[in-house]
Design goal:
With about 425 residues, this protein is mainly α. About 65% of the residues lie in helices and about 0% in strands. The protein is built from 19 helices and no strands.
């Protein structure tokens, strides 16, 4: 039997989505830490690659990246990659900057988009042809550099690690951009196997626990019948082991420390362990105050945890700070959508309708978000008894994409009002 034939199971399509999503959220920095940085002995080995946190330009690039100053981060990473053209770590850093700048610009980095399986049937994210070409070239280059080293030494820890990172980013790219779920899952599993081998060779390589932890949690979360199918081809997982590994990677202080905490907060949210998740993301916002997405996720978590009033205040403060130029990059339509959801939860239907109506006023709002906002605004106007306004919004939602699930709902509500 071919290794991935079991992917025909519908539930494993959702598994592919989860792999891609967590790769997006948790491998955003590519985790390029040298084994020497986590060495437990008194005499650490000399790094074989140049682009580590000890390099000031690389360190500055990370600082820019985590504050969403993508252009500055890319400029730093390009300098290091040019100086060290055979260093797959340097290429992965540059790939990370280029890839996540594009994903942010096309609106693919908001966790609220992935809360429901409807994401699986939505259209592909559009991406600039030149950016697509560069991303593909950098992925191929990174993988080739790692493969060249592994041909000489199959147990080269850093080459295994860098290949796993590149495979993880490839999973993110082909899942989110191409919507090739099965291929994305294959690449994600390859990343896991590389990093499991790293941990076999050096159990102290804490950064490798991030991807392994992610996959353990995801597979440990599957229904029993799907777990059995996965076990046939040697895939298994444990939710608790996944969470433990992510805590260990997050506390280790390596390059995956921040990424592991991002993934961990996502999983803790899913487990409804909201205080832990809020503490993690709150720490990230304090460390990187110019990161719009960290602040946005913090507000999302407050709302999910049932702290509606605090969430509303957080969204409004985020919007005010963004309009004042506090962030290098911001997506105000995402914050307005979140504000609308929080106000809706507090049954402030007028306020929610106003927030939803604000979404399409921002030029970066894509058609899918515009449709979501129009449909939600229509529902709020129906709750307020303002049928004429509701009908207008439903018509907008229908015209945006009549064949989508939201388009079908708009048709339904044009015939009969939304009742809550």
């Amino acid at each position: 039997m071919r290794p991935y034939r079991f992917l025909a199971f519908p539930a494993l399509t959702r598994t592919a989505l989860r792999f891609v999503l967590v790769a997006l959220l948790a491998t955003s920095q590519a985790g390029q830490m040298s084994a020497s940085s986590v060495w437990a002995g008194d005499d650490p080995p000399k790094p074989t690659f140049a682009s580590h946190l000890s390099d000031p330009i690389t360190r500055d690039g990370f600082e820019h990246f985590y504050n969403m100053e993508y252009d500055q981060a890319i400029a730093d990473f390009e300098k290091v990659a040019k100086a060290h053209p055979d260093d797959p770590f340097a290429v992965n850093h540059l790939l990370t900057g280029v890839l996540f700048r594009e994903l942010y610009h096309i609106g693919a980095l908001d966790t609220e988009l992935y809360a429901k399986d409807s994401f699986l049937t939505s259209k592909q994210f559009p991406i600039d042809a030149a950016a697509r070409s560069r991303i593909q070239e950098l992925m191929a280059r990174s993988l080739q550099l790692s493969e060249d080293r592994l041909k000489k030494n199959p147990d080269d820890i850093e080459a295994l690690y860098s290949r796993g990172v590149a495979r993880g980013m490839r999973s993110t790219y082909i899942g989110l951009v191409d919507k090739a779920w099965f291929a994305a899952l294959r690449s994600a599993v390859g990343a896991r196997h590389d990093h499991e081998r790293v941990l076999q060779l050096d159990p102290n390589y804490q950064d490798a626990k991030m991807i392994v932890g992610i996959h353990n949690y995801v597979l440990g979360s599957l229904p029993w019948t799907v777990k059995v199918a996965a076990s046939v081809v040697g895939l298994s997982g444990s939710k608790q082991k996944g969470i433990d590994y992510l805590y260990e990677a997050g506390r280790a202080g390596g390059e995956t420390s921040i990424d592991a905490r991002i993934a961990l907060s996502l999983f803790l949210r899913r487990e409804q362990r909201y205080p832990e998740a809020i503490a993690l993301v709150g720490g990230l916002t304090n460390e990187h105050p110019r990161n719009f997405l960290f602040r946005l996720e913090y507000a999302h978590l407050l709302n999910a945890a049932g702290h509606g009033a605090d969430a509303i205040a957080a969204y409004r403060k985020l919007l005010d700070d963004a309009k004042a130029g506090h962030f290098a990059e911001s997506r105000l339509e995402m914050a307005e959508w979140g504000l609308g959801e929080a106000l809706r939860g507090q049954r402030d239907f007028a306020g929610a309708a106003e927030a939803y109506d604000a979404v399409p006023t921002f030029p970066k709002a894509d058609p899918d978000m515009r449709q979501r906002a129009a449909l939600a605004a229509g529902e709020m106007y129906d709750m307020l008894g303002k049928r004429d306004l509701a009908v207008q919004r439903y018509q907008v939602a229908l015209n945006t994409n009549p064949d989508s699930p939201r388009g079908e709902l708009a048709k339904k509500y044009l015939k009969q009002p939304f009742r809550g």
